[in-house]
Write a structure and sequence with these properties.
By secondary structure, this protein is of the alpha/beta class. Helices cover 35% and strands 19% of the residues. Helix 1 runs parallel beside helix 6, helix 3 runs parallel beside helix 5 and helix 7 packs across helix 9. The chain is elongated, with a radius of gyration of 23 Å. Bound molecules: adenine.
């Protein structure tokens, strides 16, 4: 079954233009994923297209009012009218993209693939009335500790990361299993032809044809990269004493100026 994304936004074209490009674009065409963008302004409270209002308690800026966001969410879930009780359908997860949220990582992305339908709510410039978030949102997600002008690019990032795990989206399904982060460590460095470029040689072992040695080399270079570039991830790896020893020997053989 296709993975479905609904994005509630004031700028649908921003999300669509990213999602319709490259691999996710092909996945949309092939029907592996589905994208519905819902323009929050279509549910404006008046003929002037008003969706926001001044802050209670004072302060500058405007806030999205709850009614248009709620009506857009009802449309995303296929509910009509204005039900008294909010019904959260099963296998549907509502996510608010916000710098206050839990920072997205690969484990969270993998967990999100268990849902059939993700509803992504984006704020832009202004925030959203807290009550509608309290009622609708299952999870608040950030894509990093910095502030964007809106949630649309964050929603596109999430759609991209989740989509590539949907069966059929990547040409080689096993490819992602060896990639950075999926095993809690970074992918090992990779090389292609020519075997010597500007005096720089591809590591000898990769040309040896000896698969067991190649596997070991790639594993150790992946560990070393993780140690150097992402010590936070390295500290979470559960290595055996033997593996530590091997890593030390490997790094001593091939010293890295950063170590
Ligand atoms: N909206 C604004 N900044 C954001 C961030 N870092 N992550 C997700 N949504 C956002």
């Amino acid at each position: 079954m296709a993975m479905r994304f609904s994005v509630l936004t004031l700028f649908p074209e921003l999300v669509e233009s990213i999602a319709q490009t490259s691999i996710t674009g092909r996945a949309l065409k092939n029907g592996h994923i589905e994208l519905q963008t819902i323009q929050i302004r279509d549910f404006a409270i008046n003929a002037y297209g008003q969706v926001d209002d001044a802050l209670y308690g004072g302060g500058t800026g405007m806030l999205l009012r709850p009614e248009p966001v709620y009506a857009a969410w009802l449309q995303a879930t296929g509910q009509t009218g204005q039900p008294e009780v909010v019904h959260h359908p099963e296998k549907v997860r509502t996510i608010f993209l916000s710098p206050k949220g839990r920072v997205l990582n690969q484990a969270m992305v993998e967990e999100l693939t268990t849902c059939q339908h993700l509803i992504l709510i984006c704020g832009h410039y202004e925030g959203i009335d807290q009550r509608v978030l309290d009622v609708l949102v299952d999870e608040e997600v950030s894509i990093g500790d910095y502030v964007l002008t809106g949630g649309e690019i964050a929603a596109a990032v999430l759609i991209d990361a989740v989509s590539r795990l949907v069966p059929g989206v990547l040409p080689d399904q096993s490819a992602h299993e060896l990639e950075s982060h999926s095993l809690g460590r970074l992918e090992h460095p990779q090389y292609t032809r020519p075997s010597s470029w500007q005096g720089l040689k591809v590591p000898e072992v990769l040309l040896s044809g000896h698969q067991a040695r190649i596997d070991r080399f790639q594993y150790l270079s992946s560990l070393k990269d993780t140690l150097v570039k992402r010590p936070d991830l390295f500290n979470q790896l559960q290595l055996s004493a033997g593996e530590y020893q091997e890593l030390i020997e490997y790094t001593c053989q091939d010293p890295d100026p950063l170590l």
